[in-house]
Amino acid sequence: MVPLSFAGHDFLALPEAALFWPAHGALLVADLHFEKASWYARFGQFLPPHDSHATLDLIERLVERTGARALWSLGDSFHDADGAARLDADARRRLAALTMRLDWLWITGNHDAGMALMPGGRRLVEAEVEGVLLRHEAVADDNRPEISGHFHPKLRLSLRGRHVSRRCFVESRSKLILPALGSLTGGLDACHGEIRRAVGPGATAMVPLSDRLLRFPLP
Predict the structure, then answer these.
(1) Distance, CA of 133 to CA of 30 (rounded, Å)
(2) Nearest Cα to Cα of residue 167 among 3, 25, 36, 19
(3) pTM reported for the whole predicted model
(4) Residues 62-88: pLDDT tens digits?
(5) Residue 171 — φ and ψ, nearest 5°?
(6) DSSP annotation of 62
(7) What is the Cα gyration radius of the chain?
(8) Which of 110, 147, 117 is nearest to 27 (CA)?
(9) Domains in the chain, ordered, with CATH?
């Protein structure tokens, strides 16, 4: 975990694509996309079927490592409106244990907007914590500080003839976009026009390592 300052608050960025807010004991994650594989399977496209368990494994490790008391999931937590119903019994049990143990907040995303109920926790369209908005997708013309997800940003570089891709955070003066945490989530180039329009000028891609935060100004 490495320090990251945003909107006057101190956070810790984790290499596994999550953010920890020590003042609130809160682990912030985005775009879990639980049950993505089972959604594709319904249409004859078979992906490794253990994506929900792999994502839960990672969340449990991060909660242990950080000592988090809360988890705030910034939308697209399930891949579709029926995703929670497709969880197998063990994944449902593990998720229920986490939502009972932690102050769990589900922010609504575009993929899971049609869900009738979320499994445990609280559900909000967006939230505000100490002047920082938590929402799924960045609102370009809102200058208030916000933390969001949605875009699954990745930094793509060419190093010594090799193409390297890493999940990254994207930050500007008032925006902080988290990378996707879900095990089967793809990514959008951090330089893509949709991300640039969302965050505005002066954006930086950030890749946290175990001991430092690499920053790459976006051209």
Answers:
(1) 14
(2) 19
(3) 0.92
(4) 999 999 999 999 999 987 788 888 889
(5) -125, 140
(6) H
(7) 17
(8) 147
(9) 2-217 (3.60.21)
